[in-house]
Every structure is written in C-alpha cells, then in structure tokens.
Amino acid sequence: MAIYQTNERTNTNTRNKNHAQKRVEHVGDTRSVIPPQSLPEGASELDKQISRVLAGILADNYLLRLKVQEIHWNVEGPLFDSIHKMTEEYYTVLDGDIDELAERIRMKKFFAPANFKTYDSLSILSFDEEAQTAKEMIEHLTRDIDFVVSRFKDGIEAAEEAKDPGTADLLTAFLQHHEKYLWMFSSLLGGSSVKL
Fold it and tell me: Quick check: 179 and 149 in contact, CB under 8 A?
C-alpha cells in the first residue's frame, strides 16, 4: 500500500482512461527543457531533435524506475520473494540505463532534464493509480513497460531517420532490457503463451 493513498479508490476504467490520455498527449511529443532558440556550438538541429526524444525517454525510465521500486518496497503475498528480487534486478538495470540516456543527451551538448516536474511533463507514465494487490501491481507495471517499449521503438525510428546510429543502437539495447522484463512480469500473470 502506498503511503500517499487517498481514502477514495479510483475505478480501474478511469485510471486506464487517464493513463491512456496522457500517453496520447505525449506520443511524438518532443517538448523538453531545451529552449527552442538555443543551439550550442557544434550541435545541429538534428542533435536538438534527438535530444528532445531522449529527454522524453529519460523521463519515462526515471518514473518507471520509481514505480518498480515502489512495488519492490510494498508488494505482499505468496509471490513476494520472486517479485521483490525481480524488481530489485530491474531497477538496478534501469539505474544504468538512465545514466547512459542522460549522458547521451549531454554528448549532444544539451542539459539532461533532472527534476520531477519536468519528468512528469515529458513522460507518458502517470502516478494516478493505487495498486493494492501484487496482481494489480504487476498488471499496472506490465502496462507501463509496454508504453515505454512503444516510446523506445519511436525513439529508435527517430534516431535512424536522423542518421544517428549511436543513439539507435543505445536505444535498441535498452529496449531489449524492457522487453525482457515485460516478458518476465507478464509470465507471472500467466496465460499469454501459445504453441508454435
């Protein structure tokens, strides 16, 4: 149970609608802390565009990391040990990915966003749900990872269009991390695999 829980629980449909609305508002959105008029010496317009894409992905990963750690701290029930270990492994991986995403933005001569207000405005994720059971926590987490996977795919496509193979490769490696954990957490929920 989250310590900031309210007395009223929002129904699942409302939560999913709010989450989906935030995702729609941010798909393809390149807002960032990068002012429109600034272009550092040695940076191109493409560097700026890719840095904006990276800033959104960085925000998603940072908020996802917080959600994963919340589950790590607060999960209860018969799957506690498995979920506790998996979430610790996942947020440790996210720590490294977050650092490299920020460094990639800095390599392009822009400042990486580094505050919660900016992350909240850039991310497709939201904190409007209060999962109580381990099953609800994993359902919400798999949905969030799926959103982040989509954002990575969009980022890879943008990097390839900008002829930025370094960024495309970095995002592809991190996409594989998310796909692995999406599979692992989805497997905990069961029933999604079929024979070839």
Answer: yes
Say what the pTM is.
0.80
And the tokens for 27?
A: 């798909």
Using one digit for the tens of pLDDT, what is the confidence trace for 136-191? 999 999 999 999 999 999 999 999 999 999 999 999 999 999 999 999 999 999 86
Say which residue the tokens 């991190």 belong to: 174
d(C-alpha 47, C-alpha 164), whole Å? 9
The three state secondary structure string of 134-183 is HHHHHHHHHHHHHHHHHHHHHHHHHHHHCCCHHHHHHHHHHHHHHHHHHH
| One-letter identity of residue 135 | K
| Domains of the chain by residue range | 41-189
Q: What would be the CATH architecture of the domain defined by 41-189?
A: Up-down Bundle (1.20)
